[in-house]
Structure formats: C-alpha cells, structure tokens
Amino acid sequence: MGNDVAKMAGLGPPSNKTGSSVVKKKVERASKTGVLSLTEHKLEAVPKIVAEQLGGSSSKLRTMDLSRNKLDRLPEQWNFPKLTTCNLSQNRLARLPELSAALKKLDASENRLTDVVSCLTNAEAHLEELSLSKNPSLGDAIWPAVALLTRLTLLDVCGCGLRSLLDGTFSLPELIDLRADDNLVEAVDIATKAPALRRLSLARNRLQAQGIATSLLRLASLSHLDLQGNPLTKRQFLDIPGCDDFLKRREEHRKKQGGEFAELGVCGLDDQ
C-alpha cells in the first residue's frame, strides 16, 4: 500500500522505459549528442546497435552509462576512441575489454571483477577517476595496473579484498582522494607514493597504531583521515608520532573551509 501511494505521489524509485524501440531512439540521439544513457534497462547484453551505430574510428561518443543492468560481459570489440566517461557500475561483469585511451572517468563498482590489468592498458595516459569498489575478488593484484595510472586524482577501492595499500614501487603524484574502506589493510605507509593526498578513508580495516606510518600523518597535504571501525582507540592514535601535526593541519583546513562543527571527533575513533 505504501509503495502504491509513493508511486502515485511520484516519490517512488525512478523506472526507465525499456525495449528495443527505446534503445534505438536513445542511440540515435546519442549519435548527435555524444551521450548515451541505458541505465536500469534490464539489459543482459549490450545491444548490437550501440557498437554498430556509435562505435568505430569515427565515433563521437563521449559519455556512456550502462549502470544498473544485468550485464555479465561487454563486447570484445569495444571501439569508442573518444569515450571519456564510462559508468558500468552495478552489473555482473567479471572482466572488462581494453578501454579507450581517452578515458578520464571509469566507474566499474559493484561488479564481479577479478582482474583489471589488461583493460586499463590504454587508459594510463588520461584516466583521472577510477572506482572499483565492491569487487571483493580483486585483491592486491590490482596494484600493478594502478601503478601505471599516474594521472589519477581519485581512486575508490572500498570492499576490494585488499591487504595492502598502493603496494609496489610507484608514485601517483596527482592522487588527492583515496577511498579504501571495508578491506583487510593492517599497515599504511604511502606518503611518498601519494605526495599530494588530501583525503584518505580507511574505515573498517585492521589498522592498529603500529601500522600507521608517522610520515603519513606528517604529509603536508593530508587534511582528512577516516579510521572508524579499526581496532584502534582515540588514545592510541593520539600517541602516534606526527598525530599532533596532522590534527593541527586539519584544524587549519577546517577553518579555511568555514566548517565550525565539521570533524569534531578524532578520525571517527572511539575513546575506548
């Protein structure tokens, strides 16, 4: 009854019209606008018309949204050379084809991915934002691929079965936002690998005081750190060398942003 009332009032969840005729119209429109959205279309496969009319060397498609479908694979011939934004989240994908060299934003969260090395080979030149969250089978095998993405500014690897963070000898000089909640990380020492990092979220991992490097807390750019749900108390965190530097810097940043009541706690940690 409640759902019926919500729908009558226009408050229910959005639902898209689906079917081949709808897809055809959207593809025709996309050939002119460069933007294709087939989100929530109950698709089990990418319609052939997408590649036939929008793909190829003369393709002008810049943005594609195939999120919230039932896709378990994408066409191997994935030829969209000008594609800069691609949303593939909330599907059933186990792997991705080799992606566009022009790609700047990729959301492949909430799939069943087991490997991303091969699909990102071409994307290393321009990729700025990458979300792989909630692909629990990825694990630490992602780091060789991530190491090549030197233009990254945002990386979301929450719930990816990680035991390490930015593992390997590489640097992501432009990374400012790293989200790695809900993993199995026990130690974090990434100051030299992400020298411009501003925000780091490590909620619900396995971090204890000895696993947090002093160099991270003294990283001049870092102003936000979330440690909620780790086996670490506020008192233990405050005793880590460099903690005072971080808290002072965070307070200065908060004042510049005008947030009088923001982040009054200590990184989400409990007193006990």
Short synopsis of the structure:
The chain has 272 residues and is an alpha/beta fold.
Can you put this structure into words, describing what you see?
This protein is an alpha/beta fold. It is built from 7 helices and 9 strands. The chain has a 9-stranded parallel sheet with strand order 1-2-3-4-5-6-7-8-9. The longest helix has 15 residues.
Which helices and strands occur, and which strands form pairs?
Blueprint: H1 2-8, H2 20-33, E1 35-37, H3 48-54, E2 63-65, E3 85-87, E4 105-107, E5 129-131, H4 143-146, E6 154-156, E7 177-179, E8 199-201, H5 214-217, E9 224-226, H6 234-238, H7 243-257
Parallel strand pairs: 1-2, 2-3, 3-4, 4-5, 5-6, 6-7, 7-8, 8-9
Helix pairs in contact: 2-3
Offer a few descriptive terms:
272 residues; alpha/beta; disordered N terminus
